[in-house]
Amino acid sequence: MFSIEKTTLTASPPFWCRFKTTYPSEIFYAHALSVCYTSAMAATSWEDSVKSLKGVILDMCGVLYDAGEDGGTPIPGSVEAVKRLRASDLKLRFCTNETQATREKFVAKLQRMGFEISVSEVFSPAPAAVAILKERGLRPHLLVHDDVVPEFDHVEKTNPNCVVIGDAAEKFSYQNLNTAFRVLIGLEDPVLFSLGRGKYYKEDDGLNLDVGVYMKALEYACDVEAEVIGKPAPMFFQKVLDDMGIPSHESLMIGDDLVNDVGGAQECGMKGVQVRTGKYRPIDEKHPTVTADGYVNNLAEAVETILKLRGQ
Amino acid sequence: MTSLITTLLPSRSLNKGIPAEFGFHVGVLGVMATKRALKAVLIDLSGTLHVEDTAVPGAQEALNRLRQASVAVKFVTNTTKECKRNLLARLISLNFDIKEHEIFTSLTAARSLVEQRQLRPLLLVEDSALEDFSGMEISEPNAVVIGLAPDHFNYHTMNEAFRLLLDGAPLIAIHKARYYKRKDGLALGPGPFVTGLEYAADCQATVVGKPQGTFFLEALRDMDCCAEEALMIGDDARDDVGGAQNTGMLGILVRTGKYRLGDEGKINPPPYLTCDSFPQAVDHILQHLTCN
Question: Which CDD domains match (chain B) (predicted)?
């Protein structure tokens, strides 16, 4: 089942494999192909690969903390788990599709919750989007959360020739979506960037719609395919791996989003483990196309297992 | 276009066994083609007969001319914002000669589906459309009915709908139009919001309006004619023309309303005919497709 699914993916790469930016897309196809055969052959428990592990990438919302009205609350054991990872010989990075705040403010919030974390260790879509916009000389119309707008302060935005959408939450009104739609439909060659493509995330009051839903809405309205910046775009994971200087097969991604965290990481050749916190739902473990290399109850349990197996 | 007429019409007429005396021959660029025996014309409202509160120039008079030919006429619309009564009032105020029983809307189709399946819907439709759902049980909803409802397409209500869907409630879409034309420009239709919810909850909406084949066939039901004997006129290449042509009807695309340059190329097979506006469509029908 696993190997069949993976082979299917290589025959016809999902659109987020066709992510176009600085690298020619062929590189991604070729890369994905080799990766898939490797992971098909080595379909073993993630615990077997822990000894050769050199780095860990953590998703943030749903792994470190649960979002909420008051900024969120840490998931029990996660503050300590990050501390333990940091004290180990493993490299540690954080990879988020969070687009409701600038990276600085977001990191400051986590520090207030007690997490030992610095801005340079955190990879989020907005700064990556800014780099792509500048490189391609694009002027965005922004449909993003007010608090992430400052990330785009130094990007030219008059007379827009593309649209960037992020998790705008309450700002996802008909009026605002319509404005973005009109920009796109008025362009000869509509370009739509989506900061992630998540379906939903968990807040105190239940599951809430994420940016992917509105990305799909605009794609359908304008007959375009969005370019995804953030997880699960392979390039986004690759940037984190490059920063750690570690090959993909020696790194592990831990996240609560089966498709975007686990599946995205696996497509890059990493191991992917899903935590049963955050947006996790039991039916995730029977997903038709993505199977995690392992499931753990929470980050604390994952770290405990990793460090124990490594004799630390 | 010429080749399409000459290839489509004879084969369809013959296949359906329409007696030869109902058809006759016209010369098209020297090629003889059998005329189809046209019995019914379905006409879209918004964008075809009128754009908001303005009639398409000459449309009223063209409709009167069409009525004098021996074809039945029905008005089929995906306008989900308004109940039938309001639609009719607007058309009458614009001097169209139309009766309420001639209007077939996607709201009617949605209501009958909800009743058939005995569901309690969360109604994402404009308040002005609620009249067509009066008397239905809507407490503790176990289904989502979604139309064009800008006032309800806010984050809060979309989340409410999404959570119901995640619990297994069926999603019923009155239609999935991408966008429509307003006085101030193009505006999003319900389709993008339906598509978004489908993606979020990993489900597939049941669509009841155009371009569903069942919608067109349901509209023809009391008209004593089959799809091959009917024609649809509309401004939406996919939802009006493509949907109708998929059932075997002819489709005429008009370049009014939401039409944008190149729309005729968006469907395969292409429209039977593309013309500037409703009066030209009627001219073509009277000249080429009817006996009188």
Answer: HAD_PPase
- Residue B215 sits at the vertex; the CA angle it makes with B213 and B217, to the nearest 5 degrees, is 70
C-alpha B63: how far from its chain's center?
17
What is the nearest CA distance from B188 to chain A, expressed in angstroms? 6
> Quick one: tokens of B144?
């989502």
Least trusted range by pLDDT, from A21-25, A112-116, B85-89 = A21-25
Give the number of other Cβ atoms within 10 Å of residue B135's Cβ: 6
Distance CA A183, CA A202 (A): 31
Residues 6+ apart with CB under 8 A from B96: B49, B55, B59, B60, B63
Smallest Cα–Cα separation from B203: which of B157, B175, B168?
B168
Residue extents of the structural domains in chain B:
2-105+212-289, 107-207
Q: Mutation test of the interface with chain A: which of B176, B183, B188, B193, choosing the one with the most A Cβ atoms within 10 A? A: B188
Find out if CATH 3.40.50.1000 is the number for domain B107-207: yes
Q: Specify the CATH number for B2-105+212-289; select among 3.40.140.10, 3.40.50.1000, 3.40.50.2000, 3.40.570.10.
A: 3.40.50.1000
Q: Do B2-105+212-289 and B107-207 agree at the fold level?
A: yes
- Residue of A171, A210, A217 with shortest CB distance to B192: A217
Is residue B199 a contact partner of residue A199, using CB atoms and an 8 Å limit? yes
- pLDDT higher than 80, residue B152: yes
* Ordered structural domains, chain A, with CATH: 2-41 (no CATH), 46-120+231-309 (3.40.50.1000), 126-229 (3.40.50.1000)
Indicate whether B203 pLDDT > 60: yes
- Residue A85, both tokens: 């990872």
B181 close to B258: Cβ distance less than 8 angstroms: yes
DSSP string of B125-170? S-GGGGGGGTT---SS--EEEE-S-TTT-SHHHHHHHHHHHHTT--
| Measured torsion, CA atoms of residues B82, B86, B88, B89, in degrees rounded to the nearest 10 | -150
Interface test with A, best of B176, B193, B202, B207 (most A CBs within 10 A): B193
* Tens-digit pLDDT profile for residues B104-140: 999 988 988 899 899 999 999 988 888 889 999 999 9
Q: What are A27's two structure tokens?
A: 């590189």
Chain B touched by A170 (CB under 8 Å): yes
The Cα A18–Cα B30 span in angstroms is 51
Q: Is B103 helix (H, G, I), strand (E, B) or coil?
A: strand
User: B150 — contact with chain A (CB < 8 Å)?
Assistant: yes
Q: What ipTM was estimated for this complex?
A: 0.76
Residue of A98, A150, A145 whose CA lies nearest to A122:
A98
